Amino acid sequence: MSRFTTMALAGACAVAALVAAAPAQAGYYILRWDNTGVCQVWSEAFTFRPIQWPSRYQVISRSVPTFNDAVTLQVKLRRQGRCTL
After folding, report:
1. Which whole number is the average pLDDT over 1-21?
2. Alpha carbons 59 and 74: distance in angstroms, whole number
3. Based on CB atoms within 10 Å of each CB, which residue in 43, 69, 74, 78 is the most buried?
4. Which keywords appear in this protein's UniProt record, sorted alphabetically (predicted)?
5. DSSP 7-67
6. Signed CA dihedral, 53, 26, 65, 72: sign only
7. What pLDDT is attached to residue 9?
8. Please, which contacts does 20-28 make with residues 24 or more away whose CB atoms are closer than 8 Å?
9. Rounded Cα–Cα distance for residues 23 and 17 (Å)
10. Which range, of 9-13, 17-21, 48-52, averages the lowest pLDDT?
């Protein structure tokens, strides 16, 4: 490989590592679908909302900072019987 290609590849890898290591700014919350009772983790980073057809949803949690916290909260709500899945 030429030096230019090697340097470009190294630079791209460095940028990708920095982007992956940067903390996410958006939070996560839990949605509960009315017809099934299924709870779903939803990210505030999405620029759209879920389609409310054929069922509607409710936001049943406050925003949490990480996906892991949201999944932990979802499991807790399932154990309490507030979610079916």
Report:
1. 51
2. 12
3. 74
4. Signal
5. HHHHHHHHHHHHHHHSPP---EEEEEETTT--EEEEETT-SS----SSS-EEE-S--BSSH
6. positive
7. 54
8. 24/66, 27/63, 27/64, 27/65, 28/63, 28/64, 28/65, 28/66, 28/67, 28/69, 28/70
9. 12
10. 17-21
What is the torsion angle, in degrees rounded to the nearest 10, for the CA atoms of residue 42, residue 48, residue 53 and residue 55? 20
Coil/strand/helix, residue 79? helix
Distance of CA 13 to the CA centre of its chain: 24
Q: Contact 33/10 with Cβ under 8 angstroms?
A: no
Is the Cα torsion angle 27, 32, 33, 37 positive or negative in sign?
A: positive
Identity of the residue numbered 75: V
DSSP state of 69: H
Q: How far is CA 34 from CA 48, 56, 59, 61, in A?
A: 20, 6, 11, 15
